[in-house]
Design a protein that fits this description.
Elements lengths: L17 E7 L3 H12 L4 E4 L16 E2 L4 H5 L6 H11 L6 H20 L6 E3 L9 E3 L6 H15 L4 E2 L3 E7 L5 E6 L5 E11 L8 H7 L17 H7 L5 E2 L4 E8 L6 E2 L3 H4 L3 E3 L13 H9 L6 E6 H6 L2 H7 L3 E4 L2 H8 L3 H17 L20 E13 L2 E3 L5 E3 L5 E7 L4 E2 L10 H20 L1
Parallel strand pairs: 1-2, 1-9, 2-6, 9-19, 17-20
Antiparallel strand pairs: 3-5, 4-5, 7-8, 8-9, 10-17, 11-12, 11-16, 13-14, 14-16, 15-16, 18-19
Length: 462
């Protein structure tokens, strides 16, 4: 891991009036696009409405899915683009945009290599729900991929002197007869500014923190909390719609099954905890689902319990395999018990039931056969030895699969499926890739794959 560079945000007074490309959003997609375009010799600026860069990417914990990588081969995992495609297609209810998915599945490995070339080293691999093999790449040098990725990209942008302006809320994007864009934004002091550019990349994220949009498209979900940062309110959708863009799959909003939400904040408990062996038990202390099925299936199973919540149960050995649990423990999300009896008492679960469940799980791991629920992956640890731990979880809104209709070239399409020249989008603001359910580990992959694609297509067409 490289030493972190002191990152200083750009002052408005230091901006030029014209840029080759204006990038809106400073999450993984936007920062990836900015770095790639800069290295291709273009003049870019990144506008971010929040006080700090990072967006939802900062909260990503599990990893970045990719197939046919060097890391997989090192671990003896024989994978293929087709298998990656199939898992994502089946996991998305076969409602995915197949052309976008083909590009995605066949370019994630090169995106991992691009990151490595830029000091973002993903040298470990784990499993996420809905995947048939381990393909979620993560850093051994950090507990979670999100913060590590963002800080490393910012390091590179500092070295390249790329301006990143925070508290810059874009109010409108206009396109003149010559095809040039005027991007109007307002800063924290309510001062208005305008930038001229040949192209715009929208990297503004989804709308899972917008009560208005959630209620409009999925009123049945308004009672859920969200894992999203407060800036995920669908700004890019409104900006692009004013230029004639088409929206797709807006009712496809993902609820993540394992979210700690007992306090004021919701903390997503990444799928790698289950991928490394954790099990789910209900208020009766019993398993009730294949923990590594798709998010939709696991969420539905939790909601079908008498109380729509559950506990992730594991032991101290798992923490060595999933270091993010150490962070969860540090901030007080984890309950402890030296023995199963003590853990059951701490969780107020029936002791006999929890002991029977743990014994059954031990047998399933020993025999590598989960007869009860058909789990075939993550049969790593039978948890015969304590101390034991658990995290209380329940479903929460996590991701919006819908968004702008884009081509595999990251071009934003109008209502006639024709590209709006010079307008590109990538990451969660773009819809269609995931179908009706996103697989864990595909979001960070999407940001890098289509952040690079948006940059390269903008460069090509400038």
């Amino acid at each position: 891991m490289t030493e972190r560079v002191e990152f200083k945000l750009t002052n408005i007074s230091d901006l030029s009036e014209q840029y080759d490309v204006v990038i809106i959003g400073a999450g993984s997609t936007g920062l990836t696009s900015a770095l790639e375009l800069t290295e291709l010799g273009k003049k870019v600026v990144v506008l971010e409405k929040m006080e700090k860069p990072g967006g939802n990417s900062m909260r990503a914990s599990s990893g970045m899915n990719a197939a046919e990588t060097a890391i997989q081969r090192r671990e003896g995992i024989i994978d293929s683009y087709q298998s990656f495609y199939d898992d994502t297609y089946n996991g998305g209810g076969k409602q995915n945009d197949v052309e976008m998915l083909k590009y995605f599945a066949s370019h994630a490995d090169s995106a991992v290599e691009w990151l490595k070339e830029h000091d973002v080293v993903l040298d470990e691999i784990t499993l996420t729900g809905g995947m048939s093999v381990k393909r979620a790449h993560r850093p051994s040098s950090a507990p979670a991929i999100g913060g590590y990725l963002i800080h490393q990209l910012l390091n590179k942008l500092v070295e390249e002197n790329v301006p990143v302006v925070c508290q810059a809320t874009v109010e409108s994007i206009d396109r003149d007869a010559a095809g040039r864009f005027k991007v109007d934004f307002v800063n924290a002091e309510d001062q208005k500014h305008a930038l001229d550019s040949a192209a715009v990349i929208l990297a503004t994220g989804g709308f899972a923190a917008s009560n208005d949009l959630v209620e409009k498209y999925r009123p049945d979900l308004v009672h859920y909390k969200t894992t999203n940062h407060p800036g995920a309110t669908g700004d890019g959708l409104h900006l692009a719609e004013n230029l004639g863009a088409q929206l797709v799959d807006m009712d496809q909003i993902q609820v993540h099954p394992t979210v700690y939400q007992d306090g004021d904040h919701a903390f997503l408990i990444g799928e790698m905890v289950r991928g490394e062996g954790a099990i789910l038990v209900n208020q009766d202390g019993e398993r009730f689902v294949n923990e590594l099925d798709t998010r939709k299936v696991v969420t539905d199973a939790i909601n079908a319990q008498e109380r729509p919540d559950a506990y992730l149960v594991f032991n101290a050995e798992l923490v060595k395999r999933a270091s993010a649990v150490g962070f969860y423990d540090h901030i007080g999300l984890v309950k402890h018990g030296d023995t199963i009896d003590e853990l059951a008492e701490a969780l107020k679960l029936p002791v006999a039931n929890l002991k029977a469940t743990m014994q059954q799980w031990s047998g399933a791991v020993s025999e590598q056969n989960d007869e009860a629920f058909g789990r075939t992956m993550g049969l790593i640890d039978g948890f015969e030895e304590g101390p034991y731990m658990a995290i209380h979880i329940a479903p929460a809104i996590h991701y919006t699969m819908g968004g702008l209709k884009t081509s595999p070239k990251a071009e934003v399409l109008n209502k006639n499926f024709v590209p709006i020249k010079g307008l590109y989008a990538g990451g969660e603001v773009a819809g269609g890739l995931h179908g009706n359910n996103r697989i864990g580990g595909n979001s960070i992959a999407e940001t890098v794959v289509f952040g690079l694609q948006a940059a390269r297509q903008a460069f090509k067409n400038l």
